[in-house]
Amino acid sequence: MNSARDPRIAIVGAGLGGLTCARVLQQHGRSVTVFEGEASADARPQGGTLDMHPDTGQAALRAAGVLDRFHALARPEGDEWRVLDCATAALLAQQGPSADGGRPEIDRGQLRGLLLDSITEGTVRWDRAVTGVAPLADGTCRLLFGDGTAEDFDLVVGADGAWSRVRPALSPAVPGYTGVTFVETGFDDCDTRHRDLARLVGNGSMLAKGAGRSLVAQRNSNGHIRAYIALRAPRDWHEAAGVDLGDQRAVRTYLLRLFDDWDESLRYILRHSDHGFIHRSLFVLPAPHTWDNVPGVTLLGDAAHLMPPVGLGANLAMLDGADLAHALVTESSVDDAVRAYEGIMLPRSIEAATGSAKGLDHLVPATAS
Length: 369
Prior knowledge:
The chain is 33% helix and 23% strand. It has 369 residues and is an alpha/beta fold. Helix 1 packs parallel to helix 4 and helix 1 (16-27) packs parallel to helix 11. Its cofactor is FAD.
């Protein structure tokens, strides 16, 4: 990119996609600032385990120069799926891991930590909540902060997730409820305290499904298993059922009743979890989700193409970040770079969104299979 000075680039959101973009830019000697509303890197848990695909997540890690560090942390054996019969817990199917360890698993928190460690200290400005952006007539963009201040940049990248504060500058789209809710819980010290569950889950992930109900359990690192009770239900299912989500005993009782015809070894997930139940309604952006190019601003990851959590979102966010950074260091102007990036990312995301919707239908079928 030929210019009298490096462009001023701001990334909103210190998630996987935004950090990948920042890392690749810095590898090429470009300046970038990441703004994050959370107070610190450990302000909240980062979620479960992710499988990194060779042509998306791993390709982004290679572009970021951290693929070797990823492999040192990843769990190739985690690329295993076991499908169990909901009534008997009998093994119906088993897949992976692939002989070449093609999609190794890694805890999201470990991956984020790896990327944070790879960027220049001070790149992320913590506790800097963004409230919106204002594209300016000269092709730059003004970033508006919660404390009433503002800064101008040549490019603002919205990497701030499902409820992006940057997206409205490009698109009126808002996420809609999928009709599926996950209720999350977890188990610690599984190989000693929860041996039977550990055997049921295996080295990777376990799925059992019935009509409108599924149980998913995934191995994480350090002997932890994270489990998801997936329900096809209205967003206010708990209100209709008279269940206070803050009353963990009431939630447990309701879920046990809902799964009363399932095998008792699977109901163990509902009876004996070490953690409380966390309610997560699943939202998606309309598909296709596109926009007309606006100088000075673009989106990546969930801010651009929020999809069901079936294994593509993090991979695509990281590839988005790497592709955008590559365009910014190879194209002749910021505007050319953004157009080139959006020309690749938007068609790719449309195809992925279609596949993810089918994946959610497979994960939580509306009717018995």
